[in-house]
Amino acid sequence: MTVTDERPTVEVAEHQRLVTLKIRRYDPEVGPEATWQEFQVPVEKGDRLLDALHHVKWYIDGSLSFRRSCAHGVCGSDAMRINGVNRLSCKVLVKDLGEVITIEPIKGLTVLKDLIVDMDPFFEAFKSIKPFLITNGNAPTRERLQSAEDRARFDDSTKCIMCAACTTSCPVFWNDEAYFGPQAIVMAHRFIFDSRDEGADERLEILNEKEGVWRCRTTFNCTDACPRGIQVTKAIQEVKRALIFRKV
Amino acid sequence: MTATAEGAAPVVIEAPRARRTRHGKGSRTNFEMYSWIFMRMSGLLLIVLVLGHLLIMNVLDSGVQRINFGFVAGRWASPFWRTWDLMQLWLAELHGTNGLRTVINDYAVRDSTRFWLKMLLYTSAFLVLVLGTLVIFTFDPTIK
Predict the structure, then answer these.
(1) I want to staple B75 with a disulfide (CB 3.0 to 4.6 A). Which of A30, A62, B81, B126 is the partner?
(2) How confident is the model at residue A177 (pLDDT cuts 50, 70, 90)?
(3) Is A126 within 8 Å of A187 (Cβ atoms)?
(4) Among positive and negative, which fits the CA dihedral A198, A199, A200, A205?
(5) Among candidates A175, A246, A178, A171, which has minimal Cα distance to A216?
(6) Which one of A124, A177, A179, A204 would you mutate to disrupt binding with B, by most B Cβ within 10 Å of its Cβ?
(7) A209 contacts B28? CB cut-off 8 A
(8) A112 CB contacts (<8 Å, ≥6 apart)?
(9) Crossing angle, helix B79-107 and helix B69-76, to 10 degrees?
(10) What is the Cα Rg of chain B in Å?
């Protein structure tokens, strides 16, 4: 048997072009070190990065692991570090990423396999800010009404899909998981500024802790990373202001 | 679940860093908030104080060449400049110390590293503040 190039020749149709995906691979069952692996993938003009990843998984190497669910930028499963910045692979187009595309798992969380990380610390932070309606007294017999203006006050922070792109783009979080991270603060913002909610003081106290909002260094990485366009840093600053003036 | 070669130790996935506990246990003080506000306020004041200081010392009249013992003695004869320099000393030292404290909090991973770096920082800040304040208050222009 003659020795041939391990990689089969990639067939590229006329309307396609070849891009190289450089993927950070890690498999605890193979070895303790993460390695870079390159794949040649034919892509079409309108392809998203997720399509290219699917091509790798379905036709080249089925062992490649990544999370994705809805594939349309809503479920928030497929946040990854693409060319050094956090993006959803289902929302970026390959045509915007150049010839060689580096793909890594999001930073600051334990990598389980390839692009899959342990999200537990992220959800812990989310839970600790009490992400549910807090009210006092008896429940009303009808729905809790809210004016359009009151609703608009926290509209931006309701858009969060919990993909963790913001939290894992934060340099403070990279170095210290104890920091709540932008996502938890955005979620707290969503309730603190909700006129129907009465737990603002409680949440502000939690975020006033040593690992709370005061650790934010306003690097704006989170705002840049958010696939929903949430003004994350602004939301954090609003929480800081609410803490200083004790006024929501 | 983890398949290992015979006799080899199972592969352990290490956490990116030792996990630290948090949430709900923190002391309920406003220290971090006040330190955050202090950084902004002292920063604003320092812009005026330090730029003014640099202007006076290095630019006005014939600049840095004229500075000698007599020049300092002349300025410190006025309580205004003593207050200026005292404020500059305290604000700059505390501003810098607090900045380094946050850097240590952000980047030192082990608790013992944090502790000793901060001790070093606070000791040096204390020495600088005591020495500087002492000089400003006890400066003797007639000394030989």
Answers:
(1) B81
(2) confident
(3) yes
(4) positive
(5) A171
(6) A177
(7) yes
(8) A28, A118, B13
(9) 100
(10) 24
Interface of A with B (CB under 8 A): 28-29, 31-32, 108-112, 121, 124-125, 128, 171-172, 174-178, 180, 205-206, 208-212, 214-215, 217, 240, 243-244
Would you say residue B144 lies in a domain? no
- CATH number for the domain formed by residue range(s) A3-117: 3.10.20.30
Residues from chain B that touch A212, judged by Cβ atoms under 8 A, are: 26, 32
Residue B69 lies in a domain: yes
Domain count for chain B: 1
**Segment B45-76, tens digit of pLDDT:** 999 999 999 998 888 878 888 888 989 899 99
CB A228 within 8 A of CB A164: no
Residues carrying CATH 1.10.1060.10, chain A: 120-245
- CATH number (3.40.50.1110, 1.10.1060.10, 2.40.50.140, 3.30.70.100) of A120-245 reads 1.10.1060.10
pTM equals: 0.85
Q: Could you give the ipTM of this predicted complex? A: 0.80
Q: Which residues contact A176 (CB under 8 A, 6 or more apart)?
A: A211, A215, B17, B20, B105, B106, B109
pLDDT digit of tens for each residue in chain B (144 aa)? 444 444 555 555 555 555 555 555 556 789 999 999 999 999 999 999 999 999 988 888 788 888 889 898 999 999 999 999 999 999 999 999 999 999 998 888 888 999 999 999 999 999 999 999 999 999 988 876
